[in-house]
Amino acid sequence: MEASALISILRSVPSVPTLAMRRAVLTQKLFMLVPPDAAAVLHALATRAVGGDWRARAVAVALASVLAHRRQRTDVAGFHLIRDAASTAGLELIACLCGDDPAPKSLARRGRLPEVGLNTEVFFPSVPQVRYPSDEGPHKLHVVYPSSGLFSVGNGFLGYSPMPTKVLCAHPDPRFLARVLRTRWLRLQDVLAAASRRPSTPAVTITIATDDRWFVNTRVRCALAENPFTPSWLSTALRLALPLARPGNRVGDHPVDERAP
Questions:
Q1: Rounded CA gap, 198 and 97, in Å?
Q2: Is 18 left (phi over 0), alpha (psi -120 to 50) or beta?
Q3: What is the CB neighbour count within 10 angstroms for residue 179?
Q4: Fewest beta carbons within 10 Å, which of 101, 110, 148, 239?
Q5: How far is residue 34's CA from residue 150's CA, in Å, rounded to a whole number?
Q6: Contact assessment for residue 183 and residue 158, using Cβ atoms and an 8 Å cutoff
């Protein structure tokens, strides 16, 4: 049963084109199994991924995405059952993947949050509401909401901003960051700065991990995996699919096989 389920996952998940479809296929096949079998299959997948199997590494990326999306929705009951089964079987890696272990580093909620820019009330100063005319036509207006720092246009996405994009990506509110990540004018270097920012919060790293547009990028996943403020369950899943390091080079300099986004 375990061997056939493993083969089915390795064949079906990498064969679909998008990360969202891979999440759906993996979730369906994983939760068709009883928790002990699911834990054993995940352990076999992790072993193959560490060994360099590109199909297993593609599944590991999809697994990290599934975990991030379910954590964001607090829909983790199924993974807690797999965690308990893995703990009983002595599979510590799988228990960590499906568990609730915090990040290696964190800031106290009443500590230095304002000083490091992680306090939403003081991050952006209060400014009067301003309207910027759009080049696309008079029917679209760019509006600044001073209470939250949100920049929006008529189509629901963020538009032109007088602030540097790197500053917007450093905003501590995950809801605001999620909107920034959906914009077309955002640069990869700004997302990398947000993913590797120290200090950070679990909510920020999970928000970046749940944006499929940027999560498929190997460098973004490397930045999240090596950030000590990323939750342990997410960094563990990401490290299963990191590109293999070469002597004298950093891990993020070498992308994985493009068949395993």
A1: 23
A2: beta
A3: 18
A4: 110
A5: 45
A6: yes
DSSP state letters, the chain: -HHHHHHHHHHHTTTSSSHHHHHHHHHHHHTTS-HHHHHHHHHHHHHHHHTT-HHHHHHHHHHHHHHHHHHHTT--HHHHHHHHHHHHHT-HHHHHHTS----S----TTSSTTTTT--HHHHS------EEE-TT-TT-EEEEETTTTEEE-TTSS----SS-HHHHHT-S-HHHHHHHHT-TT--HHHHHHHHT-SS--HHHHHHHHT-HHHHTSHHHHHHHHT-TTS-HHHHHHHHTTSPPP-TTS-GGGSPPPTT--
**Residue 178: both structure tokens together:** 């999620």
Q: 175-198, pLDDT tens digit by residue?
A: 888 888 988 878 899 999 999 988
Token pair belonging to 144? 């600044």
Which regions in the chain score pLDDT beneath 70?
1, 106-164, 244-261
In angstroms, rounded to a whole number, what is the distance separating the alpha carbons of residues 96 and 233?
6
How many other C-beta atoms can be found within 10 angstroms of the C-beta atom of residue 144? Answer: 19
Instruction: State pTM to two decimals.
Output: 0.75
Domain extents in the chain: 2-97
